[in-house]
Design brief:
- By secondary structure, the chain is mainly alpha-helical.
- The chain has 2 domains: 34 residues, no CATH class; 117 residues, no CATH class.
- It has 8 helices and 2 strands.
- A two-stranded antiparallel ribbon has the order 1-2.
- Strand 1 and strand 2 form a beta hairpin.
- The radius of gyration is 25 Å and the shape is extended.
- The relative contact order is 0.13.
């Protein structure tokens, strides 16, 4: 087996061997599976998931400098962006034909986070969205993108649950 793995370009320590379970071990494993009780499904609540991500403070791995001040954390709150501000935040960057309206590119997600963080900055001074999206470190940008995408998707799913058809449409 080690020779097969070496052929695939993966280094293997020759002292390591992988053995198939013997008959008794296999029987014990099968018995354990039969005796196991199913884990009850926990219903997914997108509203609750979105609420857990809507705001917070991100400790920065790489501080952001604005020329005068060093920022080691960014407070953000996606719910502070209202209508047109939100649309403009999501309209940022190049348009991609392969993305539909409710899907974010990484650039859009980073800008969405940057706008949400900029809204938490002091009115006078502080970082603006451009400062944040252009100066945020790579590892921090990855997390910012993840937060924005997850909040966006969970909020969209929660909205789907609140959507109701008109009673005249329900008969169709």
């Amino acid at each position: 087996m080690a020779d097969e793995i070496r052929k695939e370009g993966v280094a293997v320590n020759d002292a390591v061997t992988i053995e198939e379970p013997n008959e008794e071990q296999a029987k014990r494993g099968a018995d354990a599976v039969k005796k196991a009780k199913p884990i009850p499904a926990i219903p997914f609540d997108p509203d609750r998931a979105a609420d857990s991500l809507k705001s917070g403070v991100m400790e920065l791995k790489e501080p952001i400098w604005d020329g005068e001040q060093k920022y080691t954390e960014l407070e953000f709150d996606f719910t502070l962006l209202k209508g047109l501000e939100l649309a403009r935040a999501l309209d940022f960057g190049e348009k991609h034909a392969d993305k539909f309206a409710m899907e974010l590119t990484d650039v859009q997600a980073l800008n969405y986070f940057a706008c949400a963080a900029a809204k938490c900055q002091p009115v006078q001074g502080g970082l603006d969205a451009k400062d944040i999206r252009e100066r945020i470190g790579g590892a921090d940008a990855i997390k910012a993108i993840q937060l924005a995408v997850c909040f966006f998707r969970f909020t969209s799913l929660a909205g789907d649950l609140r959507f109701k058809k008109k009673s005249s449409d329900a008969a169709d």
